[in-house]
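Please fill in the sequence for the structure shown.

STRUCTURE ENCODING:
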């Protein structure tokens, strides 16, 4: 459907600024964002991000005074049992750290804007964990997957992917065919029913539509206040102001003692804390540790990533390219293959930027669990390669393309525990981290989701860093 037609009957947005939201935030409250892969930071700037959640790490993050703290859980790459345990561990650690810091926590379960991830498992586990630690269970759970910067909007309960002015219901896109987290429904109420196996029927899901949101925060607060305890609410958003209106309503309800649990796409955190949309990071704001070439690591297999890889090669035809054979990464040839490829990459970095990518063939298993296990094996192979290269020839910068790839590269290959999100490399998307510890300190790290941007976006980011 043409997006102009879709939005023809939508009311004009309410005029709410980031400053309006900041004026109503409670300085004693902090968002703890459990990010199921590191791409959730692409819409924010100047916030701490952790890949570990030991007391000292959380104390450091909360001690920065930031309104939100990201904790990288990487649960989208994990089986359900392990994902549940990790959510419980992070929740317990965050509540303890908040108590030490005199802060009140609102938990955010950050997930994919195209609806892939462990839902309802993660929100259920967080709700249970909050209650287990003596805190009141959240009165409401809000589902806000919209990511307007990347063309994902929700209109009257239906989630769309917008490309070149055409809005496609997300259930009809390639993302819905995900081997592990696939789905059929585009209406978020039906999607909840589908993902809960009918335990939560669509009729029991409240839809906070753009028609209410654009009436203003008072109308939103009234709508939410009238809902029963434990209601799951799907939230429309077409632009930033819609999310800011919802944020204002939630801040007002919080002062009344009504606490919400949030399951969101990347930009909602920015709206909730009243952060202005950051301008893209320019080269003069980036510190580089050395003059070698940069390392571009591509693991994602979504069609957009493959097109961006082709666009990078076309824009920079002289760039060295090293391919990792997926089949060799999952059999007994693995170690020899990685040793040879690491030496090849290290040598090429001495003269310029290097692209490393897995073969574009997507290898899947017999079911979702086996496909996820293969994806983990491949991702660990990429991690092993980057770790070897870091020892042999630390690169000027590292770009990791894809959610699981970027998570594992950060926490395992570069051994980052703590970092600061500098800001986006492209408007609203693609996050630049400054590692604060470990062997990658001084090496800018760029987290690039698999499913965002245009075909030339990867080439644009490399151009900023390499030229």
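FILLED IN BY: designer on duty
SEQUENCE:
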């Amino acid at each position: 459907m043409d997006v102009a037609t879709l939005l023809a009957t939508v009311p004009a947005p309410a005029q709410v600024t980031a400053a309006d939201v900041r004026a109503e935030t409670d300085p004693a409250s902090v968002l703890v964002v459990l990010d199921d892969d590191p791409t959730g930071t692409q819409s924010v700037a100047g916030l701490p991000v952790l890949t570990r959640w030991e007391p000292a790490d959380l104390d450091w993050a909360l001690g920065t005074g930031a309104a939100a703290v990201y904790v990288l859980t990487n649960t989208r790459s994990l089986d359900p049992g392990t994902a549940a345990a990790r959510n419980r561990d992070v929740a317990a650690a965050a509540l303890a750290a908040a108590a030490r810091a005199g802060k009140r926590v609102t938990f955010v379960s950050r997930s994919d804007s195209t609806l892939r991830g462990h839902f309802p498992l993660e929100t259920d586990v967080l709700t249970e964990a909050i209650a287990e630690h003596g805190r009141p269970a959240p009165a409401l759970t809000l589902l806000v997957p919209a990511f307007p910067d990347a063309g994902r909007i929700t209109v009257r309960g239906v989630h769309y992917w917008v490309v070149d002015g055409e809005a496609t219901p997300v259930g009809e896109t390639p993302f819905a065919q995900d081997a592990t987290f696939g789905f059929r429904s585009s209406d978020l109420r039906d999607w909840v029913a589908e993902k809960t196996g009918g335990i939560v029927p669509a009729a029991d899901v409240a839809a906070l539509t753009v028609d209410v949101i654009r009436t203003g925060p008072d109308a939103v607060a009234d709508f939410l206040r009238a809902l029963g305890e434990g209601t799951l609410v799907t939230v429309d958003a077409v632009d930033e102001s819609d999310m800011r209106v919802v944020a204002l309503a939630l801040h007002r309800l919080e002062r009344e003692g009504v606490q919400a649990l949030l399951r969101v796409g990347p930009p909602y955190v920015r709206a909730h804390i009243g952060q202005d949309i950051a301008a893209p990071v320019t080269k003069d704001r980036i510190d580089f540790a050395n003059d070698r070439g940069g390392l571009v690591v591509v693991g994602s297999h979504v069609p957009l990533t493959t097109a961006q890889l082709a666009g990078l090669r076309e824009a920079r035809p002289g760039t060295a390219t090293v391919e990792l054979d997926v089949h060799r990464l999952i059999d007994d040839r693995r170690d020899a293959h990685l040793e040879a490829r690491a030496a090849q990459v290290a040598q090429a970095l001495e003269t310029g930027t290097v692209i490393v990518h897995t073969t574009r063939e997507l290898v899947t298993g017999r079911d979702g669990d086996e496909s996820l296990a293969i994806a983990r094996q491949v991702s660990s192979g990429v991690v092993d390669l980057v770790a070897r290269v870091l020892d042999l020839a630390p690169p000027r910068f590292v770009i990791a393309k894809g959610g699981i790839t970027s998570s594992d590269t950060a926490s395992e290959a570069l051994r980052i525990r703590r970092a600061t999100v500098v800001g986006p490399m492209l408007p609203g998307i693609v996050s630049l981290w400054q590692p604060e510890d470990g062997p990658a300190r001084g090496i800018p790290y760029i987290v690039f989701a698999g499913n965002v941007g245009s075909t030339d976006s990867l080439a644009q980011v490399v151009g900023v860093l390499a030229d």
